[in-house]
Amino acid sequence: MSDLVLPIVFPLLAAAAILLLRRGAAILALVGVALSLAASLKLLGAVASGDSATLLLPGLPDLPLRLTAEPLTALLSVVVAAVATCVLIYSVGYMKRESGLPRFFAVMSLFVAAMQALVLAGDWVLVLAAWELIGLCSYLLIGFWFQRPEAANAASRAFLYTRSADLGLYIAIFTLMGAAGTSEIAATLNVDGDTAVAAGLLLLLAIMGKSAQIPLQDWLMRAMAGPTPVSALLHSATLVAAGAILLIRVAPLLTPEVLLAIGLVGGITTVAAGLIALAERDLKRLLAASTASQYGLMLIAVGAGVPLAALLHLLAHAAIKSGLFLAAGEFQHARGGTALERLRGVGRVRPWTFFGFALAALALVGAPPLSGFFSKDAVIAAALSAPSVAWLAPLALAGTLLTGAYLARALRLLWHEREEGENENRSVAGARWMGLGVWALVIPAVFLGLTFGPIEALLGLPGPGDHGTTAMLFGLLAAAAGLALGWLVPASRLLGPFHPWAQSGLVIAGGLSFWIGRPAMAIAYGCQRLERGLYATVLSVGRGGFFIARGCGRVERGLYAVVLGTGRASLAVAHLVRVGDERRIDGLIFALVASVRGWGDRARVLQSGWIHHSLAISAVVTAVTLIILLSASLSF
Amino acid sequence: MGRDLALLIPEIAVLLAAVSALIAEILRRPRASLALAMLGLFVATGLTIRLVGTDTTVFGGSFRIDALSIWAKLILLPATMLSLLLASAEVRGTVREGTVYSLLCLATVGALILAGAGDMMFLVLGLLLTSLATFALVAYPDDDPATEAAMKYFVFGSVAGAVMIFGLTYWFGAAGSTMIADLEGTEAIPLAVIFGLVAVIVGLGYKASLVPFHFWVPDAYEGGPLSVAAFLSVVPKVGALFALTQVFRDLPSESGGPAVIAGLAVLSMTYGYLAALVQDNVVRLLAYSSIAQSGYFLLGIVALGESSFALPSIIFFAAAYAAMNLGAFAVIAAVGRTLNDFNGLGRAQPLVGVAMVLFLLSLVGIPPLAGFVGKFLLFAAAIHAQFTWLAVVAILNSVLALAVYMRIIVPMYRQEEVPHDAASIWIDIVTLTALLATVTIGLAAQFFFVKSMA
C-alpha cells in the first residue's frame, strides 16, 4: 500500500520542481495537485472496498512514521485535494498580474502536501511535523505581500497566535505518547482517566488556535490581508480545518468533561463570531468571521458527541466557503478592494459570479435542498441529542440565525443599486479562470448533500439520533428568520448598542486583547526570540552548505591538479630515467625530491590558511566518511 | 570507591602536580612550580609501574585500567617531563612562567583520561581538558602569530568538539548508554550510532591531527612556543589515538569503520609528507611529519580485532614516536627553526648532528632504531588483518618520508656552517634522554623479538 504516500509526494515534488525550475509555476502546481487528487480518489476507492492499510516509514529509531488509510482519512484527503485543485485553478487567474509567482505556487503546493500528510498521518510525530509545516506555509502565504505592513503584521500575528496555541498540541502529544508508550494515534486514543482529560483539554487549546475559536479568533480576520485564494484555501480545507479535522480524529479520546468544554467553546464562538460578521464592513473579513462561526458549529457537534455531523458540516463548508471566497476575490478585482461600501452593487456588474456567490451563501445558511441544509440539520440534531442540550441547542440555533442574518446583509449590499459615480468598475484579467474556479466549487456546494448518505455508510460512525423533524424545523425557522432580519433590518439597528463593539472585531474587545492577547503575545514574543535564534542557526547551516559547495569546487580543482601532477611526475620520472646514467646518484635523489616537491606544492593549495576553508574541507571529508559508513551498515 | 581511587592514583598525582604548580606560581615561585610539577610526574610514573599487568575498570566500567591506559601513562608522563624541561629552557624568566608548567600537567591529565576512556563522557572530558589547556599554551607568547595560531586552534577545536558532542547525543539516543563497551557484540550498529561514530572520529581526529582535521596543526606548532609544539605533537596526540583505539576495540568489525580509518590513514600519511616536502620552516616540516606519523598509528587501529599484533604495535610505536619526535624538537630548540639554521650543523656540533640524524632516520623507520620496530609491527598487524594494500601504501610513504627528512639531513653535512649560541644544558639533557630511548628501545625490542623467534 505504498500508494499512501502519493497524495503527499506529488504536491511536494511540484513544490520542489517549481523552486528549481522557476518557471511554469502555475502548471506544475496544478499538475501536482491534480495528481494528488487522483491518488486520493484511488485511495478512497481502495478503502471503500473495505481495505484499510497502514504504511510504516522508517523514522526515528523505534518510532516509525505511520500513514493510515481508513475511510475517514481517505475522505478528508480527497476533500483537501479537491478544494486545493479548484483554488489553484482560480489562482491562475487571480494572480495573473502578480510577481513572485514561483514562491506563491511552491508554497501553495507545499501547503497541500503538508495538509495531506496531516490528514493521512497515523502517527503523532508526523502530525506534529505536518502541523508545523501548515503553520509555516500559512505564515508565508498570508504574508505573501510582505511589502505591505498590514500583510506582514497579519502573517506574524497568525503565526504567533497559532504557535502559542500549538504548545497545547505538543504537551498533549507527549502526554499521550508517554501514557500509551507508542506514537501511533489509534493506540493512544485508548488512554483514559485524568490523562485523557488533560490531553483532551490541551488538544482543545491547539485546536482553538488553529480553528480561530474565541478568544483566539483575532488573527483570522487580519489574515485577510493575504491573497484571496490563500484565504479560500486556509478557511475551507487546510489551516482552519486542520483543527476541526484533528478534533474529529481524536473524538474517541474525549471524555464528557472535555466534550462539554468543546461544546461551550464552539457555541460561544459561533455566536460571537456571528455577531462580528454581522457588524463587519469588509466582505473578506465578514467571510472570515463567518468561518470562525461555522467552525464553532462543528465544535458544537463534536461536543455533542456526534463527530459525524461535524465532518459533514466540514465537507459542506469546505466547498461553500472556498466558493464564497473565490467569488469575493473576483469582486475585489472588479472594484479594487473588499470593503462592503466599495462593493455596493457589484453583483449587477458580474451577475454570474454573484449568482454563484448567492447560491453558496444560501447553502451556508442552510436552505433546502442545498448541501448546508443537510449538514446544519445534522449539527442541530446533534445539539438536541446531546446531554448538555440546554447549553448547546440555543447556541447552535443562534449561530444558524446569525449566519442567515449576516449573509443576507452581505447579499443585499452586493446587489444594492449603487449611487452614481460612487464606485468605478474595472475589467478583470483572468476572469475566465476565476469563474471556472468559483463554479467548480459552487456546484459541489449545491449538490454535496447527495453524497452524505454514502459517506455516513462508508464511515460507519453513529448518527445524531432521532431528532430529524424537530431539528429540521428549528433549523429552517432560524435560517429563515436570520435571512429576513439581515435583509430587512440594518445591522446597526439589529445590534443596537452592541454594534460598535462587534464592529471592532473583538466581542469583549479591549478586555480580551488585554487579558489574553497580552500574555499570549508575551509568550509569543519569547517564541519569536527563539525563532530568531533558530533562524540564525538555519542561516548559518545554509552558509555552511555554501562553504561545503565551495569546498567541493576546491576539491575538484585539487583533483584536477593531482591528475595534472601525476602526468607531470611521470614525465619527470621518464626524464630521470634518461638522465640517470649521466648524473651522480645523489643528483637522482634530488631530482626525485624536486618532482615530488611539485606534488607538495599542490598539497599546499589545500592549506590556504583560511579557517573556513579548512573547516569546509573537514566537513566534506566527514560527510564522505558518514556516507561510507552508512552505506556499509545498510549493506549488511 | 576506595579501590577505584587507589587505581587512579597516578592520574590524581598528576592533577595534584598541576594544582601545586599553579599555587607555586601564584606565590611567585616559578622554580618551585617547575620542581613540583616534575616531582608530581615522577611520582605518578613510579606509581604506575606498580600497576603494569592490571586489566580492570573503575567507576562501573567507565574508565579502563588496561594495557593501553597504563602504557599511556608510562609513555606520556616521561614525555611530559621532557616537555617541561624544554619549556623551562624556553620560558624561563617570562611572566606567568609557572602557568605553563601547570597547564602542561593539566593537558596531560586530559590525555590520560582520553587514553583510558571507557565511556563517551570521558572522551568528551579528556578532549576538552587537553584542548582548553593547550589553547592557552599556544597563545602563551602573546604576540601576533601566537594569537592567530591559538585563535585558529580554538575555532577548529570548538567546532570539532561541538560536532563530537552533537554526534554523541545520537549515539546515546540510539544505544541508550554512554558506555563504549555496550556496542560490543551487537549484530548491526544502529544508524544513529554511526553519526556518533563519525563525530568521535572528527573529535579525536582533530586532536590526533589526522587529515582532514589537521589544519590547525602547522599554525599552532609554529605560532606557539617550541616546547608546546613538542608537547602537542606527542602527548595529546597519543592520548587521542589511544582513545580511538579504545573506541574501535569494541566495534563489530563489519561496521565499515576500519575501511574509513584506512582511508584516513592514507590521507594523513600521504598528505602529511607531501606538504612537509615544501616547508622551509623546520617546525612546520615536523608538524606535517607528525600528521603523517599519526597516519601510521591508524594501521594498528585498522587491524584491531583481526590481529593480535595490533594493540602491542600501537603502544610500541607510541613509545618510539614519543622518544624520537621529542628528540627532534629538542634539537630544533637548540639549533633554530629554519632549514638554514641547520647548515653545517654536522660539522659544527657533531654530537647534536648525529643525534638529529638518528632521530630523523628513526622517524623514517630505518633499522635498528625504535621507529623501525614500531612501523614494522604496525605493517605486520595491517598485513595480518588483510589490509595488505594499506601496508604497501604506508611503505611507499616511507620512501616519501626519506625525501622529507633528507631535506634536513643533507644541508647539515653539505653546507657551510652558521654560528650558533650555546644551548641550555636542559635541552642537551632532553636530547640525550630521547636519543638513549630511541636507540635502546629499538635495540632492546629487536633483541627481544630475535629471542622470542628463536
Automatic annotation (TrEMBL), chain B:
- UniProt keyword list: Cell membrane, Membrane, NAD, Quinone, Translocase, Transmembrane, Transmembrane helix, Transport, Ubiquinone
Q: Name one Pfam family in it.
A: Proton_antipo_M
**Which reaction is this enzyme known to catalyze?**
a quinone + NADH + 5 H(+)(in) = a quinol + NAD(+) + 4 H(+)(out)
Q: Which domain of life is it from?
A: Bacteria
Cite the EC number: 7.1.1.-
| InterPro entries, A to Z | NADH-Q_OxRdtase_suN/2, ND/Mrp_TM
Looking at the record, the residues that make up the NADH:quinone oxidoreductase/Mrp antiporter transmembrane domain are 117-400
Membrane topology label:
Multi-pass membrane protein
Assign the protein's first listed, main location to one coarse class. membrane
Q: Which chain regions cross the lipid bilayer?
A: 6-27, 34-53, 68-87, 99-116, 122-141, 153-173, 188-206, 226-248, 260-278, 285-304, 310-336, 348-370, 376-405, 425-449
Which enzyme class, named as a word? translocase
* Subcellular location as annotated: Cell membrane; Endomembrane system; Membrane
User: What is the protein's quaternary organization?
Assistant: NDH-1 is composed of 14 different subunits. Subunits NuoA, H, J, K, L, M, N constitute the membrane sector of the complex.
Sum up the protein's function in the record's words.
NDH-1 shuttles electrons from NADH, via FMN and iron-sulfur (Fe-S) centers, to quinones in the respiratory chain. The immediate electron acceptor for the enzyme in this species is believed to be ubiquinone. Couples the redox reaction to proton translocation (for every two electrons transferred, four hydrogen ions are translocated across the cytoplasmic membrane), and thus conserves the redox energy in a proton gradient.
Protein family membership = Belongs to the complex I subunit 2 family.
Please report the name of this protein according to its UniProt entry: NADH-quinone oxidoreductase subunit N
